[in-house]
Structures are given as structure tokens and as C-alpha cells.
Amino acid sequence: MTLTEILKLAPVVPVLIIEDEAQAVPLARALTAGGLYALEVTLRTPVALECIRRIAGEVEGAVVGAGTVTTASARQACAEAGARFAVSPGLIEGETAEGPVPLLPGIATATELMSGLRAGFSHFKLFPANVVGGVGALKAFASPFPQASFCPTGGVDAKNAPDYLALSNVICVGGSWVAPGDAVKAGDWARITKLATEAAGLHA
Ligand code: 3PG
């Protein structure tokens, strides 16, 4: 699957912080049951790679990716664990669109966007979206950078997501609101499926 195809699977890519590897499979099942298929497991906990491995092996319909990928070696490691895409909060020096797994790099400025385009990327995470200009910044990027499309992430929620999704250069949005930490901790998978169902139905 290409990165474009992955990002088009649903309007929202859940950003997940998983503390306990036993939560990985039920959480991924809860999200896919609601219609969210591309799942970003952030490499912020010691069990993240194992969670990616389990979701990749056990959850039909899920397309698992890694988030918070900040080095080339992390990109390699998540590919080996079964990640189908990688997301970074920024540009990783020396990394290009070619690599062991498709990469969605983060950018916050026009200069970073230009560096990313030079490295062969055409999809970017605007991060942290609500802080670095949000909808206004993306509107401003559309005319000078028609070849770039975005997954704004950071401060995006069910309320403001439609404003982002209405933009022609937004392919999807990312956010953690569909898998709140307390619901994951409590194993409240029904609540997460409900949030995912609502998110999957979002549009401009
Ligand atoms: C993150 O890095 O945690 C993501 O950007 C998610 O941000 P959010 O918690 O504001 O959705």
C-alpha cells in the first residue's frame, strides 16, 4: 500500500500511546471496528515495537504504523516490527521518501516544507497543527506548494477536524482523542469504538 492509499483509508489516523502490550490488540480491534484502519503507535513506550508486531500479526484490517519516529534507525526498527508507515514530528536529517517504510515527516514552516519536498516527500504532518497556524497555515501553503498534502496533527479533535478536512490539501487528520488514556487503561473498548465510529464519519 502506498502512503497515499494508507492516509486515505479514513479521515482520522489515531495517535496511540500504549503502555501495556496486552492492550495493543483489543485497542486496534476497537478502532478498526469503528472504521479507523491506519493506526499510529507512537514509539514513546518501551512496549511500542512489540505492540506494532502484535497488531500487524493479529488484527485483520488494521494498517499499523509507528509514530514519534525521530531517527533512521527507528524507521528501520519499526519496519522490521511490521509497521506499514512511519510518522515523525519533524524532518529526519538524511532520510528521504525512499526507505524501509513510507515516512510521513512533520513540518511547521515553509522552509521545512521545502526541505521535505527536496527529499522527495509529498505528504507531510503539520505539527503541532493548532500551534503553528492550523487551518490558516495550510490555506497559505496551498498556492505556493500545490504538490504537498497534509495530515495536520496536534490539538486536532472531533470539533475542529471538519475545518481541516474541508481543505483541498488535507488528506486526513491525526489525533489522540479517539483513544483517551483513561479508556485504554480501563479497557473500555466500546467507548473507543464509539469515538472511532464518530471520527470515521467526519467530513468537511
Ligand atoms: C502527539 O504527538 O501526541 C500527536 O500529535 C497527537 O496530538 P493530540 O494529542 O493533540 O491529538
From TrEMBL:
Q: Which PROSITE patterns match?
A: ALDOLASE_KDPG_KHG_1, ALDOLASE_KDPG_KHG_2
Which InterPro entries does this entry report, sorted A to Z? Aldlse_KDPG_KHG, Aldolase_TIM, KDPG/KHG_AS_1, KDPG/KHG_AS_2
Q: Which UniProt keywords apply?
A: Carbohydrate metabolism, Lyase, Schiff base
Record GO terms (molecular function): (4S)-4-hydroxy-2-oxoglutarate aldolase activity; 2-dehydro-3-deoxy-phosphogluconate aldolase activity
Q: What is its EC number?
A: 4.1.2.14
| Pfam families, sorted | Aldolase
Q: In which pathway does it act?
A: Carbohydrate acid metabolism; 2-dehydro-3-deoxy-D-gluconate degradation; D-glyceraldehyde 3-phosphate and pyruvate from 2-dehydro-3-deoxy-D-gluconate: step 2/2
Listed under catalytic activity are:
2-dehydro-3-deoxy-6-phospho-D-gluconate = D-glyceraldehyde 3-phosphate + pyruvate
Instruction: Please give the family membership noted in the entry.
Output: Belongs to the KHG/KDPG aldolase family.
Q: Please give the subunit comment from the record.
A: Homotrimer.
Q: Which PANTHER family match?
A: 2-DEHYDRO-3-DEOXY-6-PHOSPHOGALACTONATE ALDOLASE-RELATED (PTHR30246:SF1), 2-KETO-3-DEOXY-6-PHOSPHOGLUCONATE ALDOLASE (PTHR30246)
Protein name listed in UniProt: 2-dehydro-3-deoxy-phosphogluconate aldolase
Where does this protein come from, organism-wise?
Phenylobacterium koreense
